[in-house]
Specification:
mainly alpha, Fumarate Reductase Iron-sulfur Protein, Chain B, domain 2, 2 domains, binds iron/sulfur cluster
């Protein structure tokens, strides 16, 4: 009897970069569409999660890195839990963003990238999210000073926005950032916890 061997690989450089960055093998995707069917943001995306996966496999790197899809992804992980092939689609979305930035591609939704940067530097500095500081940093990045002002005032009146940061746990958070940085500098195969699912090509 003839043995059927399925080669789960492709020549996509982006697929390779995603595997390196996230450990996720997009070539396991068999286009069932369950990720797209469950995605709460799919209706806003230019390419649904399953379409993006297919485009990566086909080596359509330009289309993928210039897509809005990964920037709209809310990281809710619905796709990840639904995938019958156990591809962590949410991780793939992150890896596409990181790879696009490394390749010098401007984010297709710059406000989202600005939000990530403002939020991360805020947490690194204060140890946890300090909303007022984050809003100021975001406004300075986007130069959109009046958007959501009414909502901000409402939150402030209800005591949801604190004027001063607490710095609780700031030292510990700084250590975590330091550790993550040193892990990021390691080749992926040497990073702790990389032995997992879907890493073989
Ligand atoms: S993680 Fe992103 S792509 Fe996946 S279901 Fe949630 S919003 Fe959609
Ligand atoms: S759920 Fe998994 S196998 Fe199905 S289309 Fe999405 S990534 Fe591919």
């Amino acid at each position: 009897m003839m043995e059927c061997v399925q080669r789960i690989s492709s020549d996509s450089s982006l697929a390779e970069a995603i595997l390196e960055e996230s450990g996720q093998n997009v070539n396991l995707c068999y286009q069932c569409g369950k990720c797209a069917a469950g995605c709460p943001i799919a209706y806003e995306m230019d390419y649904k999660p399953s379409q993006l996966m297919h485009a990566i496999r086909l080596g359509m790197d330009d289309l993928v890195v210039n897509s809005k899809t990964m920037w709209l992804c809310a990281a809710c992980e619905t796709c990840t839990t639904r995938c019958p092939q156990e591809v962590d689609v949410a991780k793939v979305m992150d890896a596409v963003k990181i790879t696009a930035m490394r390749r010098g591609i401007k984010p297709t939704i710059p406000e989202v990238a600005s939000f990530y940067k403002a939020a991360l530097s805020n947490i690194r500095m204060c140890g946890r999210m300090y909303e007022v500081g984050m809003i100021v940093a975001l406004k300075l990045r986007t130069l959109d000073f009046f958007k959501d002002m009414g909502l901000g005032m409402k939150m402030f009146k209800k005591g949801k926005l604190k004027l001063m940061p607490s710095f609780t746990g700031a030292r510990r958070t700084m250590k975590i950032f330091g550790r993550v940085k040193s892990i990021e500098n390691l080749p992926r195969r040497c990073r702790p916890g990389t032995a997992g699912r879907n890493q073989t090509v």
